[in-house]
Design brief:
The complex is a heterodimer.
Chain A: H1 3-25, E1 28-33, H2 41-55, E2 58-64, H3 66-75, E3 84-87, H4 88-96, E4 104-109, H5 112-125, E5 129-133, H6 138-143, E6 149-153, H7 161-177
Parallel strand pairs in A: 1-2, 1-4, 2-3, 4-5, 5-6
Helix pairs in contact in A: 2-3, 2-7
Chain B: H1 2-5, E1 9-16, H2 18-28, E2 31-35, E3 40-41, E4 44-45, E5 52-57, E6 60-67, E7 71-78, H3 80-89
Antiparallel strand pairs in B: 1-7, 2-5, 3-4, 5-6, 6-7
Classes of the chains: A alpha/beta, B alpha+beta.
């Protein structure tokens, strides 16, 4: 083989190895987009989901309004689970302006506004978002979602277990397929 | 949307669905354009289920405004420069 051809092949091989390595080393991130915290289970499920995602090697960011963010931060004062926290308007602004990109978008939905935020995130990113749908009217709310979306829904208002059990069932699939 | 809250606005509908807002704008405004979620209005990205209609009656802009705890409002704000900017930059369906 021509030595220069061999050199080019080795360079190409090295370049491909670097690309693969960069891809593998790129940290996976998920954003949890919190809704209005009027439904009690939201904060507990958010902390549980952060823990579950962390076990899968995924770093999480919380986006929400001040009340939703404060509930999460007060619930985890030593920051064992909660990492970066950001305002929901800033989150929308940063993904719309392509300043931030997340591997997974988990949207907490219990009302019409939650559906609007999920539709907005899906339209801006083009990704399949994960909708966590709960509350008294979860079926009606789930029926309003007609855009590409992975729905995890349960009638959970005060008791988080129905939604926690659904999360346990589908999270491994969600993390490996989206 | 701090900027919008500081404007002189009128609320037309409270706790409305997106279909209601769209219907109101398309049937009640002299002109409208459709935009995608994330489109900037008054320097903030609009939230909603596409297509999002924005209506005009001269310089008066009618648009939906969503907050996590309060749902969606349909609002009117008079602003000549912003109305012109939206008319020019919106690529969606127009009436």
């Amino acid at each position: 083989m021509d030595p220069s051809e061999n050199h080019l092949r080795n360079r190409e091989k090295g370049f491909l190895q670097k690309m693969t390595s960069d891809h593998e080393n790129k940290e996976k991130t998920a954003v949890l987009v919190l809704g209005c915290p009027q439904v009690p289970i939201q904060t507990g499920i958010a902390l549980y989901l952060i823990s579950a995602l962390r076990k899968k090697g995924i770093r999480t960011v919380i986006a929400g309004n001040r009340a939703a963010r404060s509930l999460v931060e007060v619930s985890d004062p030593e920051r064992h689970y909660v990492g970066e926290v950001m305002d929901i308007d800033r989150y929308i602004s940063e993904i719309a302006e392509k300043k931030r990109d997340f591997g997974f978008h988990f949207i907490f939905i219990h009302n019409d506004a939650g559906v609007s935020y999920a539709a907005t995130v899906q339209a801006i990113t083009g990704k399949t978002v994960v909708a966590l749908i709960y509350g008294e009217h979860f079926q009606e709310i789930a029926g309003m979602i007609t855009f590409p979306c992975e729905k995890i829904a349960a009638k959970a208002v005060h008791n988080p277990m129905p939604l926690k059990n659904k999360l346990d069932e589908v999270l491994p699939w969600v993390v490996s397929n989206l | 949307m701090g900027c919008i809250e500081s404007l002189k606005y009128e609320i037309i509908l409270r706790d409305a669905s997106f279909a209601e807002c769209r219907e109101y704008i398309r049937s009640g405004c002299k002109e409208y354009v459709d935009v995608d979620p994330g489109f900037k209005i008054f320097d903030k990205h609009i939230i909603g289920i596409p297509p999002i209609s924005i209506g005009f009656d001269g310089d008066v802009i009618t648009f939906p405004f969503t907050k996590p705890c309060y749902g969606t409002f349909l609002m009117k704000v008079e602003d000549h420069d912003e109305a012109e900017r939206i008319r020019k930059s919106a690529s969606g369906k127009k009436k």
